[in-house]
Write a structure and sequence with these properties.
By secondary structure, the protein is α/β, with parallel strands linked by helices. 28% of the residues lie in helices and 23% in strands. It is built from twelve helices and 19 strands. Strands 1, 2, 3, 4, 5, 16, 17, 18 and 19 form a nine-stranded mixed sheet that branches. Helix 4 crosses helix 7. The longest helix is centred in the middle third of the chain and has 17 residues. The structure holds manganese (II) ion (2 copies). One manganese (II) ion binds next to loops.
């Protein structure tokens, strides 16, 4: 059914205006003042409410296996439902190559995970851990498969995922040839792994040691190095989950020199510190993610970087593991704790309340960070990330006065704890449309499994700005 949303305030990354918005089929047909009802559509009164573009989460891990008997606890249905409740209507997940696996096999395996379950729209970054000559050649196919970005690790040497400098440089050079955007997880893998082995060997096995063996300087070093290698290769670069002052300084300096460089951060790094890893009764395990939580001083510079443009996007790195039976795998030693935290549901509400309500930045900047910038950088514009005629009908009817309080007892994510338990705020989606279909209204769910669609993302070359 077509929908006419009347009397709201339309917010884009560039400004706000009072306007009506008409959804016809899967698209936004019109935005303007005084749009007339044609009789056949549903008319929604948006008085006092805002219209925002559906959120784009550029960094998630749904149904990601980390061992034969352990995968992230949200699949492509529960994770999508939780995302939509929080106002996210598009995400880009990761198709992780296994050693010896072709890129085609990798992408097909991950597309199967989403098939029949997806509610919101999705794409995949391709994680390359084994860049053989065959894989380097096969990269030429990625644009045709709708994959505009690759993920590269400078961390996780012991898990066989770390690239050396030559591999990283060659992959960035190949990405630049093809118009692909490389994403990097930047930590000095050799040193983190060494410190981790040494800590375990002397009996430092509690969760708090996870932060100690992942120093902020390791992230700063690898961020600096990744930027330099990408620039030498003539490639753009997107640094995922930036957590600390040193990494931000490296990004800001290279941006000032004109590097084609982007950075994201995630909610967990704005609200928690390494002290949370020392919570008693193994509760610290709930906060184990990599890079680890840092300091209050780092939180302050992250907020500034989100506001001033040093960072471009706000994603979640959503990687939920249940406390009682999954995080528990590391009860005897922290290096066995599955890394990751649940956040996909809370990205927009947390950033709105603690960013916009607390006057750290404007609603326009909020839209840029949560939707417009990730859509543009990840090859989804102009279909996603902005309210404009012709774009997909991914619309949030945002109530800036609605209050919320977070609890694992009431959240939608399929995980038995919530990092933000007890946190309250104001501003959340009252209704959510994905490609013109109502997913959610007034807390009632209308989404259907299997209706989310795989997105053909465009490379920089295909966008004509390569
Ligand atoms: Mn990572
Ligand atoms: Mn990740």
């Amino acid at each position: 059914m077509d929908t006419l949303i009347r009397g709201g305030t339309v917010v884009t990354a560039a400004g706000q205006r009072r306007a009506d918005l008409r959804l016809v089929g899967e698209r936004i047909a019109e935005i303007g003042a005084g749009l007339a009802a044609n009789g056949g559509e549903r008319v929604v009164d948006a008085g006092g409410l805002l219209l925002l573009p559906g959120g784009v989460d550029g960094h998630t891990h749904l149904d990601m296996p980390i061992a034969p008997d352990c995968a992230t606890s949200d699949d492509f249905y529960t994770g999508h439902r939780a995302a939509a409740f929080g106002g996210t209507t598009t995400h880009v997940d990761f198709a992780n190559q296994q050693r010896g696996q072709s890129l085609r096999e990798t992408l097909t395996a991950w597309q199967r995970r989403a098939a029949g379950k997806a509610v919101i729209d999705y794409g995949f970054h391709l994680t390359i851990v084994d860049p053989t000559e065959a894989v380097m050649a096969e990269m030429a196919e990625l644009p045709r498969w709708g994959v505009s970005s690759i993920k590269l690790f400078l961390a996780y040497k012991a898990r066989g995922m770390m690239l050396d400098n030559e591999q990283f440089f060659r992959l960035c050079r190949r990405a630049a040839e093809l118009g692909l955007l490389p994403l990097v997880h930047a930590e000095t893998g050799e040193i983190v792994d060494l410190l981790e082995r040494e800590a375990i060997a002397v009996g430092r096995v509690e969760p708090r040691w996870h932060a100690t063996v992942h120093p902020a300087l390791a992230e700063a070093e690898a961020t600096q190095r990744a930027i330099a290698l990408a620039r030498m290769a003539g490639s753009a670069l997107y640094v995922v989950h930036v957590t600390c002052r040193g990494a931000l300084a490296a990004i800001a300096a290279a941006k000032a020199e004109g590097a084609v460089l982007y950075g994201e951060s995630c909610p967990q790094y704005l609200f928690f510190t390494e002290d949370d890893l020392a919570r008693p009764e193994f509760e610290g395990a709930k906060f184990v993610c990599s890079p680890p939580l840092r300091s209050e001083a780092d939180q302050a510079v992250l907020w500034q970087a989100l506001a001033n443009g040093t960072l471009d996007a706000f994603s979640t790195d959503h990687a939920p593991f249940r406390f009682h039976d999954q995080k528990a795998r590391g009860r005897e030693r922290f290096d066995m704790i599955p890394n990751g935290v649940p956040a996909i549901e809370h990205r927009l509400t947390l950033l709105w309340h603690f960013g916009v309500n607390q006057q750290r930045f404007s609603p326009e900047r909020f839209v840029a960070l949560t939707a417009t910038n990730p859509a543009r950088l990840l090859g989804l514009a102009p279909r996603k990330g902005a309210l404009q005629p012709g774009a997909d009908g991914d619309v949030l009817l945002w109530d800036p006065n609605a209050t919320w309080a977070i609890s694992a007892a009431t959240h939608e994510m399929a995980v038995d704890y919530d990092l933000w338990e007890g946190v309250a705020g104001r501003g959340k989606p009252h209704a959510v449309w994905r490609r013109g279909a109502l997913l959610l209204e007034g807390g009632q769910w209308f989404g259907e499994a299997g209706r989310g669609r795989y997105l053909q993302r465009k490379t920089a070359t295909q966008n004509g700005n390569g």
